[in-house]
Each structure stands twice: as structure tokens, then as C-alpha cells.
Amino acid sequence: MKTMLRYVHFLSNFIRWLPLIVEQKRKQQTLGRTPEPAAVMQEDESVLQYDKAASTSLFISYACALEIIYKCVGRVHGEAIDLACGTGNFSLAALTYLKPKKMTGIDLSQTMLDQAKENGRRLGAEQHIELLQANVLELDELPDNKWMLATFTGTAHHLDRLQQVEDVLRTMERITMDDGLVFLMDLVRLKEEGLTNRFVETIGRDFHKQGIGVFFDDFRHSMFAAWTEEELRLAIPKESRRTWIHLRPKGLPVLQILLGLPIGQDQAFRNTGVPWSKADNPIPKEVFGEWLLARTSLVRGDQTVIAF
Fold first, then answer.
1. Out of 34, 81, 89, 216, which could bridge 104 as a Cys pair, Cβ 3.0 to 4.6 Å?
2. H/E element, 124
3. Which pairing describes strands 302-306 and 244-248: parallel, antiparallel, or unpaired?
4. How far from 28 is each of 17, 32, 146, 224, 228, CA to CA, in Å?
5. Residues near 68 by beta carbon (within 8 Å), at least 6 away in sequence
6. Cβ–Cβ under 8 Å, residues 54 and 89
7. Tell me, what's the pLDDT at 2?
8. Residue 8 has what pLDDT?
9. Distance, CA of 78 to CA of 81 (rounded, Å)
10. Topology of the domain comprising 2-26+43-306
């Protein structure tokens, strides 16, 4: 009965998004990019609402990311680094389920880092996470070939220019070991303004129910600032020795992932399953249906292989 209810929830969520899926498929790209009014979140209320979203609605994408990483490289047998870590929710989830020896989180906002420190303390993870304040565009002092996993989630759209996204990817590749994984996940700019507004309003109903209306405004700006699929592929460093996979979900492509695979690996998924057991499944019950739809469409999504 429990399994049946879960799949009923899955089906209801699919039906909810079906009109937008059809429209996105048949339209041409007419929506241009509008950079965000503020790239760094500093105000206390914005940070608190972001943190709440990161543990509920945003955790759907985080759980998908953890599964994709696990399918690519399994557990992380070494250290991991999370660029633009925000309040540390993804950093701590990766620490918990991917089991790196140590996690380093970097963010420009001290307010975000203060909340990340509190989140780490609450989980008892202080000894395993290091938090540093820095600009992701100014990381020349980080050592080469140190980390087995470098992640950059939900932040590429904050950057003003596509060249800056390429600069971050180049830094990530430099600091990642040859047998490590470079992982970028971000939003996708949809094809039309009206379609984007309908998507944002549909999502927004969930945000307002959760009491995170300020985050809703930030999310709207982010959807208009996101890079298209074609734009993001252009940010992959041309001198890279890695094979890259550009992964997009079936249906409504509101997320996209770039995987810089370990050198010598030429296909994304080498493992099966998820990095958690039934007993420690991290998906909040209230968003289980949304997660099931998201992970199914992403794991079975479109893959473009890029190698230079």
C-alpha cells in the first residue's frame, strides 16, 4: 500500500507538470538572460529562508545530485570541496552520504557560513567540515590535485558572464585529482517568459506554504538569470583532459548537470543504487513524490558527451 501511494503521488506530480513539459518541447528559445540584481545573499531573513528551502524543496535537487555522484564514482575515498556552499546543506549531505574524509565549504557570504557552521554543529560534524570565506573566482591559493570531489551547485547563474563559469570549472579541474569528479549543477533558463512565469508561480505555491516567500522572489530572479543548455556547454574548458557529460532531465529541463569524469572514464554511470539505505533515506515525506519524479527524469535523462 505504501509503495502504491508513492507512485500515485508520482503520477499526480507528473500530471501537474505535463502542460509545461509540452509547451517547453514545442517552443523556440526567445527568453534572453536577465542577470540577478544581487549575486550574494547576505540579509539574515534571506539566508534563513534559503536554509529552510535547502532542507525541504531544494533537497530534492541535492538528493538527485548525491545519487548522480554515487552512480559516477561511488563513495568519495578522499576529501571533497563544495564551492559556493551557502548554508552548508549540500556540503553536509555529501559528507553524510558520500563519506569523504573531510569536506571543505567555501562561500563569499559570512552570514551563510555562520549558518553553515551552526548546521554542522547541530549534526555533530564540526570535526569533518572546514568553512572558508572566499570568492570562487579568486581561488588561486588552493592547491592542485587535492580533492577527490569538487562541487558547485545552484550557483552558476549568479555569475555575471559565462567566462566566469568557465573560470570556476577550470579551477575545479585544477584542484581535483585525476581520478576525482568535477560536478556542477544549476538551473536551466526555459524558452519563453510566459512559460517561466507559470513554472515559477506553480513552484511558488509550495514555497509560500512553507513560509519562505522571500526565497520565492530569489528563485524567480534565478530562473531568469539561468544559462540555457547550449550556453552552459560553452563554459567547459577547451583544454580539459576529462570527458564531460552534460546531463538534462526528461520532461521539463529545469536542472542541468556537468560531470567532469575521472580521467580515463568515458561514461557517466558505473554504479547502481543510491548512497543511503531505506533506514536513513533523507527525502522529506512531503516532497517524496517530487523527488521520485525528478530523479527518474534525471537518471534517465539526456546525456551529451563532450571531449576535446
1. 81
2. none
3. antiparallel
4. 19, 12, 43, 16, 12
5. 183, 247, 257, 259, 268, 298, 299
6. yes
7. 43
8. 45
9. 10
10. Rossmann fold (3.40.50)
Cα 131 to Cα 278: distance, rounded to the nearest angstrom: 30
Report pLDDT for 45: 67
Report phi then psi at 108, rounded to 5. -80, -25
Segments of the chain scoring below 50 in pLDDT: 1-11
pLDDT at residue number 143: 98
Instruction: Write down the pLDDT at residue 186.
Output: 98
Q: How far apart are the first and last CA of the chain?
A: 50
CA 24, CA 21: separation in Å to the nearest integer? 5
Distance from C-alpha of 50 to C-alpha of 212, rounded to nearest angstrom? 8
Q: Which residue has cell 505555491?
A: 205
Q: Are the beta carbons of 18 and 212 closer than 8 angstroms?
A: no
Q: Count of alpha carbons within 13 Å of 185, Cβ hemisphere only?
A: 26
Q: Which grid cell sits at 194?
A: 510566459
pLDDT at 51: 74
Q: For 117-153, how does the pLDDT look when each residue is reduced to its tens digit (9 = 90+)?
A: 999 999 999 999 999 999 999 999 999 999 999 999 9
Nearest-CA neighbor of 129 among 106, 155, 152? Answer: 106
The pLDDT tens digits for 269-292 are: 999 999 999 889 888 787 787 888
Rounded CA gap, 153 and 174, in Å?
Answer: 18
Cα(308)–Cα(228) distance, rounded to whole angstroms? 21
Residue 39: its pLDDT value, please? 56
Where are the domains positioned within the chain? 2-26+43-306
Helical H runs in 133-256? 162-175, 193-209, 213-225, 229-233
Q: Check if the beta carbon of residue 129 is closer than 8 Å to that of residue 82.
A: no
